[in-house]
Amino acid sequence: MSEPKQLCWVDIERQCGHIVNQINDRCEEEDHNIDAIIGLSRGGLVPATIIAHQLAVREVLVHGYHSYDENTNSRDPNNTHGVMYQDVVYDLMKGLSGKNILIVDDLCDAGITMHGLTQRLYKKFHKGAVNFMTATLYCKSHSQFRPDFVGEYCGKDWLVFPWEQCKYCYQ
Is 66 helix (H, G, I), strand (E, B) or coil? Predict the structure, then answer.
């Protein structure tokens, strides 16, 4: 396995910019805007905030859903659906019917997290009640899920994001 690829803040801002450009192009074609953003905790929170500022979206929700074991930071091969630990579905049901929602994460690796969440949301909302779109800064080539908007497609490298490099995070 090769050395992890250390990403910097410039990389993050660049990928967020690519995503925003893609969103603006699609929204112009389809004549709609993003009404709210869901940031997937933890990795999707920073990009969700940056993208929200760039798109002037004020409503940002947090949803906790992951497919990695929190103790080993590796994927649990027995868990094919991910783990939900902070649920926004009821918040969504309160006032987002008929709106365009962007779900943001930092990485789409195998695609388990994004696939699991989108399937759950589609089951909870009647078809067309909420328009969900997905975005990730990076999407690995082997991912089974393809987000609507991607900053960059990447190979199999292990990516280390700037918010994971903080020396105070690992003391």
Answer: strand
Peptide bond into 42 cis (omega under 30): yes
Tens of pLDDT, residue by residue over 53-73, are: 999 999 998 877 655 555 544
Burial (CB < 10 A; 0-12, 13-18, 19+), residue 92, is: buried
Distance, in Å, from the CA atom of 35 to the CA atom of 11, rounded to the nearest integer, reads 26
Three-class DSSP category at 9? helix
User: Residues 81-109: what's their mean pLDDT?
Assistant: 73
- In degrees, to the nearest 5, what angle opens at C-alpha 52 toward C-alphas 50 and 58? 135
Residue 16, amino acid: C
Reading the block at residue 87, the tokens are 């649920």
> Could you say which DSSP state residue 103 is in?
E
What three-state secondary structure class fits 133? strand
Answer yes or no: pTM beyond 0.85: no
DSSP 118: H
Within its chain, how far is the Cα of 14 from the centroid?
Answer: 16
